[in-house]
# Entry
Amino acid sequence: MARWGGFGNHRMSTLGFSGDVTTSWASLAFQPYFTSTASNVGFFWTHDIGGFEGQPDPELYTRWIQWGTLSNMLRTHCDGKKIGGGFTRDIWDYPASYFEIMQSAFQLRAAIVPYTYTQHAQAYSSGVGLLRPMYYHFPEDSNAYSMTGQYMFGEDILVSPITSASPGNNLTEQTVWIPEGNWIEYYSGKLFTGPTTITRNYSLAEIPAFVKAGAIIPMRSSIDAPTIGSAQEIPSILRLDVYPISNGVAQIYEDDGKTLAYETGSFAITQVESNVEDTSVYLTINAITGNSFPSMVSSRGYEINLINVWPATTVSFSTTEVPYSATGDDVTQNWWTYIGPTLTVKINIATPNPVDSDLSIKVGFVGSLNSTVLSSGFSRQLTYLQTCKDLLDDENGVYFVSDYPHILRAAGFGLGLTAENAVQELPNFAALYQAAQSDAQNLLQIQVTPEAEACIVLLNSA
# Structure
């Protein structure tokens, strides 16, 4: 990484250093625009997350960490030598509620390394950076030029990081331009069809990010190694997060992660394709291409997450039928399970499959993948309901559980959603959610409290 030298010094180093930026919301707000447009001249910017001088308050530092999570590099740094104690960027020095959110952001960054590494490899070969202005992908739309606070994070993820303080309730309003096509909001599963512009509230735990429909996002699985600290290890189990609203294709690039042997062709590329029909998905993991490299695994298992889907009826790979598991906890066996709160079919293929051979996976579902019930933002609604319930439980004595029965029932709805009952139960959730919203309104007739008011805002935002 080079010291600060302005445009041009990237001829001398792979990574650019943005200088000792100040710690402020204004400084954070400038960085997404500054970094994505630097791709126009091939400059790979990195920043002092949290700023160099000053101690960011918990909300500012959390949002800065989140921006770093989906940027070129998540790198914290500050002046720690000030007389009187200096500054710190250790996330464990912050209150637990903020620490947990920042910890999740670091874990996401570590898990998404196969995606970012592949995109960086494409940048090496094409000159197109990991962060791109929106007009790289949508040059004919004027919004691609005017919405300067958002960018493409590689080929498949749109990011609009929050760079302003909340009004005091840890919910921040953000306006996002959704370009042409179908996009799935990462934290909610809600489907948006562009071109359109949306304005939504986001909790402190959420990064406004949208995944292109049909995308196949390669990730590190936590099964074979801890996600943090394993970036240079070649995964023996590869995780694929699939958004099967439409057909998709992804290429996954791998090399030894330590040498320059890739310059002479020592790398491997795995192409993954999905073919989506009304009630089925066919996934093909193709044999690796390229010259490979000595530390490349000869075979591997897979963790496949099919997101925003009904429970499966059948799952198979090659000629092997994959059995259903209600718990999905024995990682040494092949199984599939259904995760109700996120409407996800998770498939564990423990059988090692040779990477130099194709692997075909077929999944049938109990209902249509085009159902609007699947794309209404169910997982976010559950999260906000659970937050609302926790707020009201803390006010025991002002409110009693009999005052908000529908909130209680709706908050636990995801836990009771299983492969056996999802088709019958999930369509009933919309009416239950409306009843929960009415509960929140009715609490104001008992006593007006910040907790009840926060519930109303939360449930109206989901």
In short: The mean pLDDT is 91. The CA atoms of residues 112 and 219 lie 5 Å apart. The two ends are 42 Å apart (CA to CA). DSSP finds ten helices and 19 strands in the chain.
